[in-house]
Design brief:
Blueprint lengths: L9 H50 L19 E2 L2 E2 L27 H7 L11 E2 L11 H7 L3 E8 L22 E9 L5 E9 L2
Antiparallel strand pairs: 1-2, 3-4, 4-5, 5-6
Length: 207
């Protein structure tokens, strides 16, 4: 008896290819979503590193343009032991010809809207978001760092924070006092490469 082998018809072959394509598309979508899930923590960690770098730069600067730039015991606007310090500025913002991170000497110099207005060559976003690389001053040959940082932008606002009376060890610091020169509140927003914005805030006292 002659045995005849049974194969696939053309219709069965086409249907099988379509079903296989649908299954592969589903697997591909799953892999892409998993890739994003692993990428997000790395993006957030990069934002934290950028914030820590900028915060460190701000903390080591003087509270005010009229503060003792070399550090000292006296604050702007104070009169102690017959020593009268210059009054604190009544407004915030860049002073003189400051245009680069190395020129900054007080907290107000970090206001990014002012930086965007003064440093025209910066590729700012919305007139407020400065490229994160501005605060790192990386060398030209460090192309890898520059490539990573170019996906992140930073917005910084500085405002007076008159701290009210504090009592107890767990007192919450609020900007609700009467001394406009007691502290400044720094708000930092980091625009990540995925389009999300992470907000941070801290207070620098006039010390």
């Amino acid at each position: 008896m002659k045995q005849v082998g049974k194969g696939f018809t053309l219709i069965e072959f086409v249907v099988g290819m379509v079903l296989l394509g649908v299954a592969c598309a589903g697997c591909l979508s799953l892999l892409i979503s998993q890739k994003d899930a692993y990428r997000d923590p790395l993006v957030q960690q990069m934002s934290v590193q950028i914030f820590n770098k900028i915060r460190s730069e701000i903390i080591i600067r003087s509270f005010d343009e009229n503060s003792e730039q070399g550090g000292g015991f006296y604050r702007c606007g104070e009169s102690v032991n017959n020593i009268i310090m210059d009054s604190c500025k009544t407004s915030v913002g860049l002073d003189g010809s400051e245009k680069a991170l190395g020129d900054f000497n007080d907290v107000d110099d970090f206001i990014t809207s002012d930086i965007c207005n003064r440093v025209s060559e910066l590729a700012c976003r919305d007139g407020e978001y400065v490229p994160a690389s501005f605060f790192f001053e990386t060398f030209d040959y460090d192309s890898e760092v520059n490539t990573i940082l170019e996906d992140y932008h930073v917005k910084i606002k500085v405002s007076a924070c008159p701290i009210g009376g504090l009592s107890g060890t767990s007192a919450e610091i609020k900007c609700n006092g009467s001394d406009d020169h007691s502290a400044k509140k720094i708000d930092i927003s980091i625009l990540q490469r995925d389009g999300n914005v992470i907000d941070y805030s801290f207070i620098k006292a006039n010390i």
